Amino acid sequence: MRHLIQTTDLDKDEINIILNSAKNYLKDDVAQTLKGKMAITIFFENSTRTLSSFEIALKRLGASVVRLDVSKSSTAKGESISDTAANLNAMKPNAIIIRHKNAGAGDHLSKYVSCPIINGGDGAHAHPTQALLDLFTIQNHFKTTLEGKRIAIIGDIKNSRVANSNIELLGRYGMKITLVAPPHFLPKTDLPTTSDITSIIDSVDVLMSLRTQIERHDTQTYGSLKDYAHNFCITKELIRDKNIIILHPGPVNRNIDIEDEVLKDSRCKVLEQVTNGVAVRMAVMEHFILNH
Ligand code: ASP
Fold first, then answer.
1. Domain presence at residue 46
2. Residue of 100, 102, 130, 225 to test ligand 1 pocket, by largest number of atoms within 8 Å of CB
3. 50 annotated as a binding-site residue
4. Same domain for 135 and 265
5. What's a Pfam family this protein contains (predicted)?
6. Tens digit of pLDDT per residue, the chain (292 long)?
7. How far, in Å, from the CA of 31 to the mean position of ligand 1?
8. 248 Cβ below 6 A of ligand 1
9. Closest CA to 256 of 229, 235, 280
10. What domain count does the chain have?
11. If you measure from the C-alpha of residue 202 to the centroid of ligand 1, how many angstroms do you get, rounded to a whole number?
12. Ligand 1 atom closest to the CA of 120, numbered from 1
């Protein structure tokens, strides 16, 4: 049984197949290849984009979707997450998509089910479909190999599952990655790092801004978000007329992560990422449900 817990669960050939079919799914007219299939979504952490994106993706391919309302589920009555999974599995879904605040939750669950588990984000560990849609968005923009293209990942990298998954995946596609953050937001890494965003702005092709993951901080290790914004917000003044694109997985903290004016700029791909996310998740769900 194949599961998608992290980006390394997919080799490059499979990723290329998935992203190629995602290209077709950007078109309106799609076949109902998952008709008769059923998937369950269980999101123990908040989500706007990922949850709706998976559900829309599945429905567009003809699958039915059951969303477990975790506030009303029996985990709230003390049932363990593995027992919840085993019970859901007994209803014979074709896939379960899970988000959880604990790193490793999806992997743990995969031991109790007989259908693919798709990780919709586990703690600060991984968010594989976000990285796939980011790769897809970057590839669609450059329309050439990403080998040697330069990306700066900016923000709370240490606590970001999006950064983790992207560092693995974009690195595998040959992108040169620099981490830009104040020291307390930097993970242990062999990658180049800086806390001076102006020092890299002339030498990058892509900026990926990330939200400060306040929900994952035990104590506040930084001043105010306003102080953070002063040094790390992507502003018009910073990007001027540079030939770059700007990504962010959302939710964007306006004028802290990215300035309002930049969000309106055609170089900012935030909403394109959301559109691409549905197409990529259609391809992912089809790959895992039909090929497992
Ligand atoms: N939506 C992304 C995630 O779930 C990024 C974020 O929340 O900052 O990881």
1. yes
2. 130
3. yes
4. yes
5. OTCace
6. 999 999 999 999 999 999 999 999 998 778 999 999 999 999 999 999 999 999 999 999 999 999 998 877 777 777 888 898 899 999 999 999 999 999 999 999 999 999 999 999 999 999 999 999 999 999 999 999 999 999 999 999 999 999 999 999 999 999 999 999 999 999 999 999 999 999 999 999 999 999 999 899 888 777 788 889 999 999 999 999 999 999 999 999 999 999 999 999 999 999 999 999 999 999 999 999 999 7
7. 30
8. no
9. 229
10. 2
11. 27
12. 4
Same domain for 36 and 135?
A: no
Q: Which domain holds residue 195?
A: 128-269
Instruction: For strands 95-100 and 117-122, give the pairing.
Output: parallel
Contact 211 CB / ligand 1 (< 6 Å): yes
Based on the fold, state whether residues 189 and 282 are members of the same structural domain.
Answer: no
- Structure-block tokens of residue 149: 């293209």
Q: How many residues does the chain have?
A: 292
Ligand 1 in reach of 121 Cβ (< 6 A): yes
Same domain, 244 and 117: no
Ligand 1 center to residue 176 CA distance, Å? 23
- Per the domain annotation, does 132 fall within a domain? yes
Q: Is 130 annotated as a binding residue?
A: yes
